[in-house]
Write a structure and sequence with these properties.
Elements: H1 3-18, H2 21-24, E1 33-42, E2 47-49, E3 51-56, E4 59-65, E5 75-86, E6 88-93, H3 105-111, H4 114-130, E7 133-138, H5 147-156, E8 164-167, E9 172-174, E10 194-196, H6 200-210, E11 216-219, E12 221-222, E13 231-232, H7 236-248, E14 253-257, H8 260-269, E15 273-276, H9 282-290, E16 294-296, H10 306-318, H11 338-345, H12 350-356, H13 359-365, E17 380-384, E18 397-402, E19 405-408
Parallel strand pairs: 1-5, 6-7, 7-8, 9-10, 11-14, 14-15, 15-16
Antiparallel strand pairs: 1-2, 1-3, 3-4, 5-17, 12-13, 17-18, 18-19
Helix pairs in contact: 1-4, 1-5, 6-7, 7-8, 9-10
């Protein structure tokens, strides 16, 4: 059965249970004009008490003191005791994985079929949207081919609800470096990412872009070779081949790297973001800051420890740009807000954690999101309380709007 047929079958089976009423015709669509009246507005940078926001179509039309926002012709949505803020960005997700506490990575990749994985992903997309994450950067399908691209199409066509989706498709690993492993040598086992080496990196990058990749993801290091732990896989030259090919097509590059040497090679190759960075040193973080390479720390993945805490604090001290991203999929979708809590627990001011998930994320991803100001996409959420004073408020999402369409509002019904 071909890719499109498989996806059509599983999406059709799952969609009736998860489509938001606003996309079934039960709520107002993006042509509606709204005036949103919370207690306060976090605009992506600072907090404003007593502000309101006017939305027309899929864009923010006006934002400012409530007395100056004209409600004429608009549907007024009262959101008392809430903070209205930009929809949050999940900088590192895997929508085609589910929590490792349920099923190990190996078992998911080896034993769960494509239709099953896509059906789960439909639910994952909805869970992340309802948790207030209106944009996600999905960094690898982990053996599910280009299913992320067609899920993105399903969201964009209004077939299923979900965040804006940036896809990295299959991701790229050094030949022999990834998994699953542990099989008889005479077997050729499908891998969780696409293998490449040498100048073949150029072909693989172009092929993934041709299949719809918005980002290219490379693995600079992995648990590879006879020694324990992670080690660099690609040479700096190999990564430079990939980066040049991607950038010439206008596609940015994210790099999985935990080792200091893998991070150094990635920065020198000209990548745009580094994922994890668990063993980063002050020297390599200084290099990242100098080259404007953002860090996506994924503190929520695999549990917190002193090593990750020290590394993140070193990145903050060096002035590295932080893009909030959790590696969700390794833990339950919808719990993404835990990443912001951990960043604050590690010493990041709450307002900076919010920026990392909104305005900073918009700038890193080069998208018209992450700020509450005229002309930006109307991706807006309201949370109960003030997240600049209590970061856990980001988990209490009362209202979700994406591109001017309401998906969640008080009473669990779209605003009418």
């Amino acid at each position: 059965m071909g890719w499109k047929r498989i996806l059509a079958v599983c999406l059709g089976a799952a969609v009736s249970a998860v489509v938001a009423p606003a996309q079934r015709g039960g709520g107002r669509g993006p042509s509606t004009v709204y005036v949103l009246k919370p207690a306060r507005v976090f605009d992506g940078d600072v907090m404003h008490e007593g502000w309101a926001v006017r939305v027309r179509g899929d864009r923010i039309e006006a934002a400012g003191p409530a007395a100056g926002i004209d409600p004429t012709g608009a549907q007024v949505v009262d959101l008392p005791q809430t903070t209205l803020m930009p929809g949050m960005v999940e900088g590192h997700s895997h929508i085609l994985l589910h929590s490792y506490s349920e099923t190990s990575w190996n078992d998911q990749v080896e034993h769960e079929g494509l239709a099953l994985r896509v059906a789960r992903a439909v639910n994952h997309l909805r869970a992340e949207l309802m948790a207030g994450f209106t944009t996600i950067r999905d960094l690898g399908t982990e053996g599910a081919g280009y299913a992320d691209v067609e899920l993105k199409q399903a969201v964009n066509q209004g077939i299923i609800p979900g965040p804006r989706l940036l896809c990295a498709t299959r991701a790229i690993v050094a030949t022999g470096a990834y998994g699953p492993k542990g099989f008889a040598q005479e077997w050729t086992v499908p891998q969780g990412a696409e293998e490449a080496s040498g100048m073949d990196m150029i072909r693989v990058v172009r092929d993934q872009i041709g299949h719809g990749a918005d980002w290219v993801k490379l693995y600079a290091d992995y648990r590879f070779g006879p020694l324990p732990g992670s080690h660099p896989t690609f040479t700096q030259e190999e990564m430079k081949f990939a980066v040049d090919a991607a950038h010439s097509a206008g596609v940015p590059v994210a790099v999985h790297s935990s080792t200091a040497e893998g991070m150094r090679r990635a920065v020198s190759a000209g990548v745009d973001t580094i994922e994890h960075g668990n063993d980063g040193t002050p020297e390599v973080f200084k290099l990242m800051a100098e080259h404007n390479v953002a860090l996506c720390p994924t503190l929520a993945a695999g549990g917190m420890n002193d090593r990750k805490r020290a590394s993140f604090q070193a990145a903050l001290a060096a002035g590295v740009t932080i893009l909030s991203g959790s590696d969700v999929g390794t833990f339950p979708h919808g719990d993404n807000g835990h990443e912001l809590e951990l960043m604050v627990d590690c010493g990041m001011p709450a307002v900076d954690a919010l920026r990392a998930a909104t305005s900073v994320a918009g700038r890193v991803l080069k998208m018209e999101i992450g700020q509450v100001k005229p002309g930006m996409y109307a991706d807006l959420i309201a949370v109960d309380g003030d997240p600049t004073k209590e970061i856990a408020a980001v988990r209490r999402v009362k209202f979700v709007m994406k591109a001017g369409t309401v998906y969640k509002s008080p009473g669990s019904q779209p605003a009418n």
